[in-house]
Amino acid sequence: MKKIVLIEDENGIARMISVQLQLVGFEVIQAKDLATALELDLSEFDIIVLDWMLPDGDGPDVIPEIRRSTDAPILMLTARSELVDKLTGFEAGADDYLTKPFDMMELIARIKALLRRSEKQKPEKTEAQLQYGEIGMDVDTRSVRVGGEEVVLTPTEFKILEIFMRAPGKVFSRDELIELVMGYEYEGYGRTLDSHIARLRNKIEPDGHERQYIKTVFGVGYKFGDER
Questions:
Q1: Ranges 29-33, 46-50, 91-95: which has the least confidence
Q2: Does the 129-224 domain belong in CATH 1.25.40.10?
Q3: In degrees rounded to 5, what are phi and psi of residue 80?
Q4: DSSP per residue over 121-177, as a string?
Q5: φ, ψ at 141 (rounded to 5°)
Q6: Of 122, 201, 202, 221, which has the maximum CB count within 10 A?
Q7: Where would I find the H helices in the chain?
Q8: Angle at Cα 187 formed by Cα 66 and Cα 119, nearest 5°?
Q9: Closest Cα partner for 224 from 154, 144, 133, 142?
């Protein structure tokens, strides 16, 4: 049984989510605020569902601290729907974002998709050490260095970069990347994918405006570097 920690202070919403998730086979532990959540051993959980506005702070502010304990996917819930708010959540390290009010079936589908993605086993005989230009990746330790300096990536950013580095020069359509990264097709996720890639570019490109590594193929999608 997969374990979910639900960090949500609105009792009605928390009860509704917990009941529905339990009905489909998840074990749910509730935390009404950030302090309570951080007292838990977050490494024991398979996924974290995190509300944005909580009594003792905002969800995005605590994500870096959560990341010190676990790489489990983080799904943010919020009433904020502006693109800048979504970018703030993703920049902090969230893996997906759902705006209130939401349909429970969509929440369940997104949770299952995040779990499928995190549980995918690495292909046999897959290289653990990847190098392209000044970018080095260790898949086993989930670490990335650019020019010898360590760069901290979210799980989603790491997955995107790994996909790119395993196939330099290959052109990926946006739909193909969504399927590979998220593990499911979701209409409207294209803008979210673009946000992840924009943040990844800012972290690995020598100049945020220069496209040395991740290149846009207009009308199609993206490619990483050139074929070797």
A1: 91-95
A2: no
A3: -75, 130
A4: PPPTT--SEEEETTEEEETTTTEEEETTEEE---HHHHHHHHHHHTSTT-EEEHHHH
A5: -95, -5
A6: 201
A7: 11-23, 34-38, 59-67, 83-92, 104-119, 155-165, 174-182, 190-204
A8: 40
A9: 133
Every domain of the chain and the residues it spans: 3-119, 129-224
Contact status, residue 40 vs residue 31, Cβ threshold 8 Å: yes
Angle, CA 179 vertex, CA 174 and CA 184 arms, to 5° = 130
Domain range 3-119, its CATH number among 3.40.630.30, 3.40.640.10, 3.40.50.2300, 3.30.70.20: 3.40.50.2300
Q: Compute the average pLDDT of residues 6-24.
A: 92
Tell me the per-residue pLDDT of 152-173, one tens digit each, with 9 for 90 and over.
888 888 999 999 999 998 999 9
Distance CA 74, CA 155 (A): 9
For the four alpha carbons of 81, 84, 85 and 86, in that order, the dihedral sign comes to positive
